[in-house]
Amino acid sequence: MGDGRRRVLLLGSTGSIGTQTLDVIAANPDRFEVVGLAAGRNRALLDEQAERFGVPALAQGSEAAEALVRDVEADVIVNGITGAAGLGPTIAALGTEAVLALANKESLIIGAPVVKPLMTPGRVAPVDSEHSAIAQCLASGTHGEVRRLVLTASGGAFRGRSRESLAHVRPEEALAHPTWDMGLMVTTNTATLVNKGLEVIEAHLLFDVPFDAIEVVVHPQSIVHSMVEFVDGATIVQASPPDMRLPISLALDAPHRIPGVGVPLDWTVPQSWTFEPLDEHAFPAVALAKLVGEAAGTRPAVFNAANEQAVHAFHAGRLAFLDIVPVIEAALATVAEESGAVDLAGVLEADRRAREAADALIASSGAS
Question: What residues contact 336, with CB distance under 8 A and at least 6 apart?
Answer without folding.
Answer: none
